[in-house]
Records
---
Amino acid sequence: MPIIHSEFRSPWWMPGGHMQTLMPVIMRPLSSSTNIRFIDLPDGDQLAADFYTADISADQPRKLLIATHGLEGSSRQPYVLGICHAARKSGFDVLAWNLRGCGETDNRLAKLYYSGCSEDLDAMVVWAEQQGYREIYLAGYSLGGNILLKWLGEQGDKAQARGVRCAATASVPVDLAGCVQTLDHWSKMIYRLRFVGDMKKRLRRKAKKFPGTIDLSVLDKINTLRDYDHYVSAPLNGFASAEDLYARCSAKYFLHNIAVPTLLVNAQNDPFLNAACYPLVEAQHHSLLTLELTRTGGHVGYLSHAGDWWMDRRFLHYFAQY
């Protein structure tokens, strides 16, 4: 598909990728009035998800949007709530799920999410199939976008057979190793300290809830995102090292096998992403993958110069084509 150089523009008073990343979090307070669904996983775990019903009459066909949040986020992140509210007004039921250990309701097991946990997204699609949905749309943000793109590549032709019409992703670190290196740089300390601090808190909670399952002595070794992946994510999920995890879970290695229409929107001033997260060659040679590059927007920001939340509108416009 052609690579789109988007006309999206951020407000003049919000210069730079950092401000375009941080300000929308403050400026977009959204409430959540939802029904919680508890979805069982094959390994005995259970995840909480927020379920929204479309603003349509009962006799109209139902279609479902499954939304996946990003690193250290939840189903109540402003960007997730934004697409949930916008999508239900456009006729979608919405399932916004929480990765393991995220959100207000903890998962049952000692397991925590990692950057390639596409098996958990698959459980959400299974739930949708069990509920009778035949039109399934997928949205993924940041790390959730990596998980989604990986899942699509793993599924190949099976995704369409299972009812998936298309997918849209934004601010996606398709090259995990490069993104971790970017975020671990001293210039990104404001992000790294927040992420690593939250991860350590979650690890302590899990260790307290499941004595003997997690070795807290590793906490002294964890100062970077790479450290966390090497000492926690990798061993807990069957990887030999952080590098092994990145090599086996980065979405860039799965893009070629995606078999449903897929949109990838990345801002060129995203402070989280490295050069390999703009897969120009892959998009040029893939008939179903559209890469949209915005000059501005930051990381999951996308407040437009007109004052609206462009990413919600862009995703829904893309979904409407399928």
Note: The mean pLDDT is 94.
---
Amino acid sequence: MPSTHQQLLYHIVFSTKNRKPYLQNEQFRTDLFAYMAGITKNLDGFALEIGGWVDHVHLLVRIPAKVAVSDFVGRLKANSSKHVNETSDSLHKFGWQEGFGAFTVSVSQKDAVAEYIKTQAEHHSRESFQEEYVRLLKCHGVDYDARYVFD
């Protein structure tokens, strides 16, 4: 076959450093998520949905085959935290946690995952980020050691 064809969607989740509620301001979140969509585009990816709550972010993204998920997330975090630290007077030493969760998403489920990401405020009225993240790990069959899930 002379060319490569793929359709890989990822649901990526990560937290602010020490789960600090840096993302409390709705306008700040909106601006940050738009900036992250731009970073994704610059990395030759496509953001179908970006959302989150006060201490974490969810992304539904398409990443090109030539880019490893860990490289994509590392560059996304580095560029977005640098942007926040350079442009925000109110946030000091903004950063993301070291790790992340990445889960593949079937094209048939992309709308459901996008809706889930859009409605984070509703989800977190009844479930903490820690509970949500552990539930996602279990739902996707990811083995984990509870001692090392959160920083």
Note: Helices lie at 26-42, 69-87, 110-118, 120-123, 129-139.
---
Amino acid sequence: MSRRPGRRHVGTRVSELRRLFEIGITAQAIEEPLQCCDSNDLACETAEKMLKLHFDVIGVKDSKDGPVLGYIRDCDLDHGRCREHIRMFDLSNLISNSTPLINVLPILRDRPRVFILSENTVTGIITRADLQKPPVRILLFGLVSLLEIHLSRLIQKYYPRDSWKTKLTKERIAYAEKIMNERMARNESLDLLDCLQFCDKGKLATAHPEIQQILHFESRKSGSKLLKSIEKVRDKLAHSQDIVGGTTWEEIIDLAGKIEELILLSERYADATA
């Protein structure tokens, strides 16, 4: 089945993916309950407990059923009582439990944690470690998959009649044909282009000057570097590996923003040429 390159398909817009994560998946999906201590507890004893639990912050209360007064950090607990080390919550580290998950990523770019408000009470916490959880992985993989769809459309348009085959090795084409035969045996209708790997599509996209221009790649080299970084994250997600291994959360979150930007650029081009 051949698809017309300029045609829009339901479920392939970044706004549709955003809507899914804005309406259906919120901060509540990855938050952890905020563990608390009594304000009168000894700081050193509390620090030992936090070390055993691998916590770097916990909440502080005056009583078991009382409101959370603030929080303490393990690195501060070297003397006295916990009440002497309380840090107050402020707007910069508070979000609602209904905050869309897709908006949590940029919030955590420049801070290690945020506290969660539920009915005007602090009840939970999200740290960068929580970004390893399945809902975030689904979000990131969804963005990468959506980008791959858009790369396929651009390749289909700018490499008519499968002319892209001249840019790939015989081995890469043979591998794609193997995948296509397997999928056709399952009665799936698709093009050979659909069976290319992300690395192949990246190579084709960066090799074409007009696609480079559409996606605002400064050069073939810079475009290849960006798509290679995206491919590495994709592979980590596909194999349930540590997302941030070998990089930083700042870089991962920035990369997610760049993926979204590439999709939007492709969408605008498709709308302008439809």
Note: Confidence is low (pLDDT under 50) at residues 1-7.
---
Amino acid sequence: MSTSTSDIDYTPPTFPPPSLKPLVEEIAHLLTTRKETISIAETAAGGLLSSSLLSYPGASKYYKGGLTLYTLPSRIAYAGWTQETIKDYRGPTTDIVSGLAQYVRKDLESTYTLSESGTAGPTGGETRNRTPGYVALAVDCERGTFTREVETGLGGDRVGNMVRFAEEGLKLLREVIVGESTRGAYGGKGFVSKSLTGEGKESKA
């Protein structure tokens, strides 16, 4: 006995996640009114950044493209990495995401590129940047590369960390667009490392 699709009770999932939706709406409005564009290079967020930005109607006006560079070989294929780069790789850092953002923005010629790399869990390593919940973020634009480190405090909650990584990335992007991230120019005054309380700590890059 066949079942008609009309007989299936289907409730669409909430997307983007509630914590991302207002950020996406604001960023989409900012980019559209300013006639600016965005591209994405993400790893541990697994495509959440791109898909969230694309969920907004009219995304083709501001979205130039994106890459999900989850594996090291994908970074060789699409982000200019070499075997030597992989040999020296020690996990996500602000240097790593800065390089990804700069490379992708040059290729896609967008106004901004947002990049993300973190440790979603549930497993991790012994160093801070290998601890589940750690993420490094960067936004590259003509004014420079702005970076941030965040520790979510969610432990090994993989999905929770992925959503939070995307949320923190969108927050940084919004701040750079409106000119609030003035302390984090990579190669200049260092980066802003945000604690769980949201307090910024400046570190020299």
Note: The chain has one domain: 18-203.
